[in-house]
Specification:
Radius of gyration: 20 Å
Strand content: 5-15%
Strand order of the largest sheet: 1-2
Distance between the termini: 56 Å
Helix content: 55-70%
Length: about 160
């Protein structure tokens, strides 16, 4: 007979609704960690991490306006120091360039280099395969349902906008 997990033991005396909320939250954290590890493994042959890949994708999306480091910080939930280090590494790899923003020369804007654009096209299939493999255990319909649930949770956690 298998003994209950540590989490199950810790939640045993909690009301079921609270125990489910805690367990679901812990599971989201664990799944996110495992998915990131899977994507990092897919990117290892390219000597990139998931954060670097996400930065490249975000920087490539410059249809409306070039991305700024502060925007990247917000989207990646990273500190300014973390984003600076990330961009320093991507510049060393000649994948990204920082330049003064056209409308405000005190600000920086980000752009992919030609090598960065080529690299992004090269690595995207490996990342997409890792994402699909990560969700393959539940299939497309359950993945779509999970996305709806996670979007709802996300929206409920966002701070309310002041009137």
């Amino acid at each position: 007979m298998t003994s209950p997990s540590r989490l199950d033991r810790l939640l045993a005396d909690r009301p079921a609704e609270l125990a489910d909320a805690i367990a679901a939250s812990r599971m989201v954290f664990r799944v996110a960690h495992l998915l990131e590890a899977r994507v990092d493994a897919a990117l290892a042959p390219f000597e990139l991490s998931m954060r670097e890949y996400l930065a490249l994708v975000l920087i490539a999306d410059d249809a409306v306006e070039p991305l700024r480091p502060s925007d990247l910080s917000t989207t990646l939930d990273a500190t300014r120091v973390q984003v600076t280090r990330l961009l320093d590494g991507l510049e060393r790899k000649a994948l990204v360039q920082r330049s003064p923003a056209k409308e405000d020369r005190r600000a920086l804007q980000l752009a992919l280099t030609k090598a960065g654009s080529r690299r992004l096209k090269e690595i995207a299939p490996a990342v997409h395969a890792a994402y699909q493999e990560g969700w393959s255990a539940v299939g497309p319909k359950a993945t779509a349902t999970a996305l709806k649930v996670l979007r709802t949770v996300h929206a409920g956690l966002l701070p309310e906008e002041a009137p």
